[in-house]
């Protein structure tokens, strides 16, 4: 944690808000989910207790709804009464209300065209464009990428022309690339790049992120967009941390992420950090 940051409040000085946020977004990987059984039980119990108090904790994650429910399991749903709705998924691509999807935020034709236009030709076989249920490429996909897609139960790519891809509802782009290529691309196109694996990145426009999803969800309920808490650990959580009036970073978050949260916890995801944040916020 950087000593010159004035925006970070250590956990011991946290004061419970007089009116706790009605909603509270919770990141999954590196934040809520943990292999530590004791910490997991604490997080699940706190999640359930907040709901009993009449507030709404919800998942705000890079995962899909199906992937999230598969990870947390049926016992979580039974104990908490929460089935993943409402929630913000795939870094703001999908926003769910109490029952159904409210928004599917697709990549604009303008962004897609600019991104593709500045790609080096020899990288095209390592770029995948995703719709909700299908994936596409401009040329035959690199065998290693095909292996990754298959291993993650993602759809095999279909080769499409540029015009065809521009006319599809593309929700995300995946690219296998040396980081230096992305640095050069950013000179011409603004985007966020989240590393999934070594040199494998998920690309999204700067304005498509978790804070967009939170804002849309709050507007759906007719309440102040900032009447929402948030906790996370990663670079894809920064916009949400800055956006929400009450935001936490877990202790295992990188320093660059911590400085954007209102409060930095002294507990990691494996120590029940989410339970601690909910306890502080809602007086459990």
Automatic annotation (TrEMBL):
<feature type="compositionally biased region" description="Polar residues">
    <location>
        <begin position="1"/>
        <end position="12"/>
    </location>
</feature>
<keyword id="KW-0378">Hydrolase</keyword>
<feature type="region of interest" description="Disordered">
    <location>
        <begin position="1"/>
        <end position="20"/>
    </location>
</feature>
<dbReference type="InterPro" id="IPR036412">
    <property type="entry name" value="HAD-like_sf"/>
</dbReference>
<dbReference type="InterPro" id="IPR006379">
    <property type="entry name" value="HAD-SF_hydro_IIB"/>
</dbReference>
<dbReference type="GO" id="GO:0000287">
    <property type="term" value="F:magnesium ion binding"/>
</dbReference>
<protein>
    <submittedName>
        <fullName>Haloacid dehalogenase-like hydrolase family member protein</fullName>
        <ecNumber>3.1.3.23</ecNumber>
    </submittedName>
</protein>
<dbReference type="Pfam" id="PF08282">
    <property type="entry name" value="Hydrolase_3"/>
</dbReference>
<dbReference type="GO" id="GO:0050308">
    <property type="term" value="F:sugar-phosphatase activity"/>
</dbReference>
<dbReference type="InterPro" id="IPR023214">
    <property type="entry name" value="HAD_sf"/>
</dbReference>
<dbReference type="GO" id="GO:0005829">
    <property type="term" value="C:cytosol"/>
</dbReference>
């Amino acid at each position: 944690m950087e000593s010159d940051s004035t925006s970070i409040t250590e956990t011991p000085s946290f004061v419970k808000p007089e009116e706790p946020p009605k909603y509270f977004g919770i990141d999954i990987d590196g934040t809520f989910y943990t292999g530590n059984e004791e910490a997991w039980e604490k997080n699940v119990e706190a999640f359930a207790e907040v709901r009993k108090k009449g507030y709404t904790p919800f998942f705000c994650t890079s995962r899909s709804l199906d992937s999230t429910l598969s990870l947390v399991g049926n016992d979580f749903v039974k104990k908490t009464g929460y089935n993943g709705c409402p929630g913000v998924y795939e870094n703001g691509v999908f926003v769910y209300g109490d029952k159904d999807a409210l928004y599917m935020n697709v990549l604009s034709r303008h962004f897609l065209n600019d991104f593709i236009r500045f790609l080096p030709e020899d990288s095209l076989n390592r770029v995948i464009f995703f719709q909700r249920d299908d994936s596409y490429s401009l040329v035959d996909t690199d065998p290693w990428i095909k292996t990754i897609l298959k291993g993650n139960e993602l759809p095999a790519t279909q080769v499409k022309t540029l015009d065809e891809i521009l006319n599809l509802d593309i929700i995300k782009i995946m690219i296998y690339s040396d980081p230096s290529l992305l640095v050069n691309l950013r000179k011409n196109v603004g985007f966020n790049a989240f590393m999934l694996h070594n040199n494998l990145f998920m690309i999204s426009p700067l304005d498509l992120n978790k804070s967009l999803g939170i804002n849309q969800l709050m507007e759906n309920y007719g309440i102040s967009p900032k009447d929402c808490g948030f906790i996370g650990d990663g670079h894809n959580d920064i916009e949400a941390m800055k956006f929400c009036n009450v935001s936490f970073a877990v202790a295992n978050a990188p320093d660059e992420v911590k400085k954007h949260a209102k409060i930095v916890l002294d507990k990691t995801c494996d120590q029940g950090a989410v339970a601690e944040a909910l306890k502080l916020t809602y007086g459990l």
